[in-house]
Amino acid sequence: MLLWFHGAAFTAWIGLYIAQSALVRLHRVSVHRALGWFGAALAASMVISGFLVSVVMMRFDITVLHLKTVAPFLSILWCYMIVFGACMALAIYVRKRPEYHRRLVFIASCQLMQAAFVRLHYIGIHDLFFPALDVLILAGILRDLLVDGRVNRVYRFGFPAVIVLQALATCLQLANPSWWRGATQAILGL
Q: Which of 20, 36, 18 is nearest to 28 (CA)?
């Protein structure tokens, strides 16, 4: 049931993201704002679901599939949820500043593409999901440059923060220091 809920919530987010963008484009901002509270609740449930499913599936991989070296990957999975959750929390906080709100929701939504990118053979095998996500965010930055003639502060400060978190998550996964091994064992109940 947890996986079904997780999949439905993340799929619903994409539909909501498209609908919310269309509502703004059609100047139906009052409807956009009303739906926004549903989006906030959905985002919160997605963060909780993302953390839970990552633990459940990691335990499955280790106990059922006997993949003994996957636990450090938890840092990668949690990085997406931390960025998504932080961006959405900030987007809710600055909801009355559309130029910031829109970009924060965009960066958050880009994080959800990891699940799709990791399933693309070449990207998944070569662990290129972070660069693939970064290309999406760079497309937003390019849009700012072409349309506005400048890069918005959200991208100027947010994108480097995302890169730093990605680097930290990658270092934890690859180096797997003893404290992280202990933390993942405790988190996974192993």
A: 20
CB atoms within 10 A of CB 174: 10
Secondary structure (H, E, C), 29-63: HHHHHHHHHHHHHHHHHHHHHHHHHHHHHHHHHHH
pTM for this entry: 0.91
**pLDDT per residue as tens digits for the range 98-120:** 999 999 999 999 999 988 888 88
The DSSP symbol for 65 reads S
Q: Which amino acid is it at 140? A: G
Cα radius of gyration (the chain): 18
Report CA dihedral (39, 45, 51, 56) to the nearest 10 degrees. -130
CA distance 8 to 170: 28
Phi, psi of 92 (to 5 degrees): -65, -40
